[in-house]
């Protein structure tokens, strides 16, 4: 999906929820939409400073918190990075395949894996509120280059 289509979709979701998609939030969203890998907050801050020289760490963290709350992005816990979710118009479980060589992240939506995981958690008396499963390895592009 193109960045413009994603931005339009995000605006619509915000309008439907009564949330404000401010200029800063949109700029951070656009920065995330341009990458296929996870991006750290400070890397995003440096990019944002090119158009918003007064941006501070709090600026980026507030925007990331908003984008996370709206379901627009996933946090990659293992690398403390963020990535845009292409399917943010509905709640869904996510499984992330993270290439250890190039950093490319592929988002999967296996309902059978989610069901099995939720079922196992329930057997332990645990109720999952949200989940993202991360797997690290080597992507096809990197395998092909060796």
Describe this protein's structure:
- The protein is of the alpha+beta class and 146 residues long.
- It folds into 2 domains: 3-84, Arc Repressor Mutant, subunit A; 94-144, Dna Ligase, domain 1 (2-Layer Sandwich).
- Strand 2 (73-76) and strand 3 (81-84) form a beta hairpin.
- Helix 2 (23-33) crosses helix 4 and helix 3 (41-48) packs across helix 4.
- 21% of the residues are buried.
- The protein has a 3-stranded antiparallel β-sheet.
- The radius of gyration is 16 Å and the shape is globular.
- The chain has 6 helices and 6 strands.
- It has helices at 3-17, 23-33, 41-48, 57-69, 111-123, 140-144, and strands at 39-40, 73-76, 81-84, 94-99, 105-108, 132-137.
- Helix content is 45%, strand content 18%.
- GO terms for molecular function: DNA-binding transcription factor activity; transcription cis-regulatory region binding; zinc ion binding.
- Its cofactor is Zn(2+).
- Zn(2+) binds at residues 99, 102, 139, 142.
- It is found in: Cytoplasm.
- Keywords: Cytoplasm, DNA-binding, Iron, Metal-binding, Repressor, Transcription, Transcription regulation, Zinc.
């Amino acid at each position: 999906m193109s960045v413009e289509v994603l931005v339009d979709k995000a605006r619509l979701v915000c309008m439907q929820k009564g949330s404000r998609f401010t200029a800063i939030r949109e700029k951070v969203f656009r920065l995330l939409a341009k990458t296929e890998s996870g991006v750290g907050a400070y890397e995003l801050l440096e990019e944002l400073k090119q158009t918003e020289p007064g941006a501070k760490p709090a600026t980026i963290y507030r925007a990331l918190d908003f984008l996370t709350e709206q379901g627009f992005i996933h946090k990659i816990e293992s690398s403390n990075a963020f990535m845009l979710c292409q399917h943010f118009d509905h709640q869904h479980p996510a499984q992330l395949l993270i290439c250890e060589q190039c950093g490319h992240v592929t988002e999967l939506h296996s309902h059978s894996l989610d069901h099995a995981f939720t079922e196992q958690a329930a057997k332990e008396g645990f109720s999952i509120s949200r989940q993202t499963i991360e797997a690290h390895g080597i992507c096809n592009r990197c395998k092909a280059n060796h």
